[in-house]
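Bug #77: duplicate submission created two jobs. Keeping one. Sequence:
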Amino acid sequence: MFELLLVLLAFLVGYSVHRGGICLVGATLEVIEHKRADTFLFVLEAMSVAFAVVLTTYLLIPLQIKFAPSIEVSSLFLGGAMLYGVGASINGGCALGTLNQLMAGRLTFLGTILGMSAGFFGFLVLHKLFPVPETMTVMRVKETLYILLPLLFLAWAVILFRFWQIFVQRKLSFTERVHQFLKKPLARSFIAIFLLGVGSGMLYLLLGHSWDYSRWIMDAQRFLFLDKNSADLSSPKTFWHVSVATFGLLTGIITAALIGHSFQLSPIQMKAFLVKISGGALMGFGAGFMQGGNDTLLLYGVPTLAFHAPIAILLIIFMIGLILLLKAKLGSTTGI
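Kept job's structure:
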């Protein structure tokens, strides 16, 4: 029964991720080319829901929740975030964007997964040879409630305003909104926002640790090839639960692609495949310094109050924007 609940929640997250078209590269390109931030707004609202779910639950049941540790914002951490942003730009998609493309039939993005795995492994080997002490702190919520309570109030205000838009300002019926969520190739409705946020928050509350696929790849490699005692997934039961959640995530994304008619099987193109591998390798290596990729930051770090998560996300977005602008500049001056 517990595994079924994990699959269901992760399925809803995956379905909503694809419906919202979540990808930091695509979101940054949207701002640069169209002067719109629809994707960023979608992600922000979804993370507001997840934050509201997690913190409200903590205030009601404080003894059953352990918040995510925050990593020291060191030069290595900042360098890893910058490297990740460069890799995502080369790849043409972040960790979530890669899954959206791969599960929609673009098999060339398999190169990204292979590259990320190689990058993670390279980081783990380097870290084992030259260990760097990691400073982690868990936020003491009771001492920072004067900051968190206004944020919680704001998060619930956003949620209630969205509900008001749906049920009071009825331009569409609820049935029509559900139909849009299920059928449209791109649906950034409140239903998708709510399911993504609640699913992310509930998965964390049920598991008590990160469940995203990029961190799962890294810890699985550590568990299988290096030092299993240092892996978050060192318990076979924990590894099984995260694997179940990952299965649900992938199933949700591919189901959304099929129902939304965005699935189009395309064979591997070798030149692009090699580019994906190189971009993915940079992403994986950089993610090692952040304890996971941008899916870790968005689905786990931000909702569970890890202070390093928004810093890393902003730096990744900055690097993606810088590379995209540089590409556009070089293209306009060289005629590419």
